[in-house]
Amino acid sequence: MTIYFYKVWQPYGCFSNFSPHGIKIQGTYWSTVEHYYQAQKFVGSKDAAIIPLIHQATTPEEAAALGRCSSRQMRADWHQVKTQVMREAVLKKFLTHTEIRDILLGTGEELLVENSPNDYFWGCGINKTGENHLGKVLMSVREEIRKRFSVTAIAEKHLQY
Ligand SMILES: Nc1c(N[C@@H]2O[C@H](COP(=O)(O)O)[C@@H](O)[C@H]2O)[nH]c(=O)[nH]c1=O
Questions:
Q1: Which atom of ligand 1 sits closest to the CA of residue 38?
Q2: Which residues form the NADAR domain (predicted)?
Q3: pLDDT in tens, 51-66
Q4: What is the spatial distance between Cα 152 and Cα 140, in angstroms, rounded to a whole number?
Q5: Does ligand 1 have an atom closer than 6 angstroms to the CB of 6?
Q6: pLDDT tens for residues 115-125?
Q7: pLDDT at 159
Q8: Is the complex ipTM higher than 0.95?
Q9: Which of 119, 120, 134 to mutate to test the pocket of ligand 1 (most atoms within 8 A of CB)?
């Protein structure tokens, strides 16, 4: 059964990048994945001064609004790197917060889909034909965490003997 998620207050809301689960990346703490993701759009661009404002935004909605402002110039390579940026942040989120890690692992092999009505890249869009890259990132993170944990469990078992 496909698992759809979108808003934080809906089922599986912890899969949303707007969920209140902070991450620390390269020594900097970000209140949500969305704050981090939006800020990365401007790394090395002439509008990099927006980064601290995104960092300090009081809500992920505010961070997203700042990052989506079309009059600002994003880094030239954004479309090449954005999926990797997102994966790094989402992986960090689920490695940091055990309670939501268990929810992610508990989805087994189900298909995860960001049910965004207007985003055909990260989500599935209103007609469900979108590319669903956030769902794909989450499924890839689920797989990676499972692998990491099984390696740790095997190593711990060996240490017992
Ligand atoms: N969850 C969620 C959204 N979806 C998120 O928006 C981000 C994409 O932003 P951009 O690349 O600027 O279009 C990405 O993190 C995607 O998961 N958007 C919203 O306005 N509200 C929301 O509750």
A1: 12
A2: 4-146
A3: 999 999 999 999 999 9
A4: 18
A5: yes
A6: 999 999 999 99
A7: 75
A8: no
A9: 119
Q: Specify whether the backbone of 85 is left (phi greater than 0), alpha (psi in -120 to 50) or beta.
A: alpha
Give CA–CA dist 149/151, Å, rounded.
5
How far, in Å, is the centroid of ligand 1 from the Cα of 61? 9
Q: How confident is the model at residue 156 (pLDDT cuts 50, 70, 90)?
A: confident
The residue whose CB lies within 8 Å of the most ligand 1 atoms, and thus the one to mutate among 4, 15, 16, is: 16
And the tokens for 54?
């995104």
pTM: predicted TM-score of the whole model, two decimal places: 0.94
CATH topology of domain 2-159: Tetracycline Repressor; domain 2 (1.10.357)
d(C-alpha 16, C-alpha 90), whole Å:
10
Rounded distance from Cα 147 to ligand 1 centre (Å)? 28
